Each structure stands twice: as C-alpha cells, then as structure tokens.
Amino acid sequence: MTVSELSEKMGLETLVPGDPTRRVTGGYTGDLLSWVMARANEGDAWITVMGSINSVAVAVLTEVACIILSEDSALDEDARVRAEKEGIAILRSSETAFRLAVELDRLLG
Amino acid sequence: MKLHFDVPGDDFTRAGEASGQVKRKLKRLGFPPDVIRRISIAVYEGEINMVIHAGGGAADIEILPDRITAVLTDHGPGIPDVELAMQEGWSTAPDNIRSLGFGAGMGLPNIKKYTDMLDIDTEVGRGTVLTMTVFVNRK
Ligand SMILES: Nc1ncnc2c1ncn2[C@@H]1O[C@H](COP(=O)(O)OP(=O)(O)OP(=O)(O)O)[C@@H](O)[C@H]1O
Ligand SMILES: [Mg+2]
Fold first, then answer.
1. Could you report the predicted ipTM of this complex, rounded to two decimals?
2. The CATH number of the domain where A13 resides is what?
3. Which of B8, B51, B76, B103 has the highest count of CB atoms within 10 angstroms of its CB?
4. Residue A47 is part of which domain span?
5. pTM to 2 decimal places
6. Domains of chain B, start order
C-alpha cells in the first residue's frame, strides 16, 4: 500500500504530500524521539502527536514512510518547511493513536 | 574524507545538520543503507545531547571505505556517572526538553546499540568526547 492509498483509506488530511508513491510496510506509535529512533523501521507509518522539526529529522533518519499526526496535533511551521524540503509526507487525523494503529493494522492485513 | 560541523547550543532547529549531511554524503558514496541508518542516528543522538546537556559542541566525521568514525566533542558539564547515564531511562533533561520529545534516557543506549565501537571520555567540569565507529562489513 502506498502513502496516498493509506491516506485515502484512513481519511487523513494531507499537510505535506512528500512522496505519495512511497510504500507503507508497517507502523510504529510513539512520542519519545529516542524511543522512535530505537524501534521504528524503514517503511513504517509513524503515528505521533509530535509535530516538531525534530520529528521531521527523526523521520528522515529512520526512513519511515510518513508521519501521521493523531488527535489533530499541531504541525510547527518550521517542521512543515523542513518536511517539504526533505520530501517527508505528513498526514493528520482527529482520531487517537490507538484508533489509527488499529485501522492501519487492519489495512496492512 | 573528513567532515567538520559546529553544533550550536540551544538550537534544536540546527541540531541534525551534521547527521543529515553525513547521511546524504554516505548515500551519494553508495554505503549500505543499514550502515547509513546506524551512524546517522548515532550522530543525531550525540548532536542532540550536546545541544540539551552541554551547550553545543563539534562533530568530526571521518569516512573510510570500511568504517565511519564520528567524534563529538563538547566543553559542557561532563557526565558524573557514565554507567548510570548509559542505562535506558536515565535522564536529567528538564521538563521543557521533555515536552519536545527528548529526555527518554534512550539516546546513549541507542548510540551503543547502533555503533560497533563506542568510547566516552568525560570529566566533570571539562566536557565530553564521544568516539563512535560503525564498520561497513560488520553487523
Ligand atoms: N554531552 C553530554 N554532556 C553532559 N551530560 C550528558 C551528555 N550526554 C548525555 N549526558 C547525560 O546523560 C544522560 C543520558 O543521556 P541520554 O542521551 O541517554 O538521554 P537523554 O538525552 O536524557 O534523553 P533522550 O536521549 O532519550 O532524549 C542525560 O540525561 C545527561 O544527564
Ligand atoms: Mg539524549
């Protein structure tokens, strides 16, 4: 499943399109950045409330497929700019991280 | 090939410059993705630590065909108890740092996990030098 397919199926708002053809192969949920750097895998959809520039840096380093901001969390302006420059997709939803993770797991089968 | 970066203190927007550029350079040079991921995450953790805990510092990266070595030098307060600092979950990060998503006490353990060699030379009142190496043909 690609980032754009995932976005459509989960009804996510696109804040930064990034590379919509990127494959999503798994998921990770967490807001503590060092924890994410320890555990997130390449190709994961990363669900978090952290819409900061550091999150974008972490997404670049871990090579996750996209960031999904849960519960309508704010995306900082400098984060948006950096994500556009780095080609990182950022999506958003009003749902909780739990609901999003359940839905993502169902979609990934 | 050698790269040098100054890591400014208290500027989270610029922390990540060294790791980001190292990552791009290694990609261009065709290093294995796993090697790139490990060294760039380790350097980022080191950069962030210098910003949060030491008021900034410098990152010196040496790229050789068989290994990448990063030396992170700061003149911050030093680490009083390295063994404690290496434990998962140990952190002295203040609350304002925690609200940014740092301070899980996972940075140094991550560096240990992702690198093949790690040396921490630190002295209270003098500063800290982290020397880390990732070998290309070793997991
Ligand atoms: N360069 C440094 N100078 C002084 N103290 C440091 C330095 N790096 C780490 N420390 C100390 O070691 C502790 C553990 O560091 P570590 O990177 O594991 O966790 P953290 O930075 O607190 O949180 P996280 O990395 O998960 O965001 C820090 O809280 C700090 O007390
Ligand atoms: Mg740290």
1. 0.89
2. 3.40.1390.20
3. B51
4. 3-108
5. 0.94
6. 2-135 (3.30.565.10)
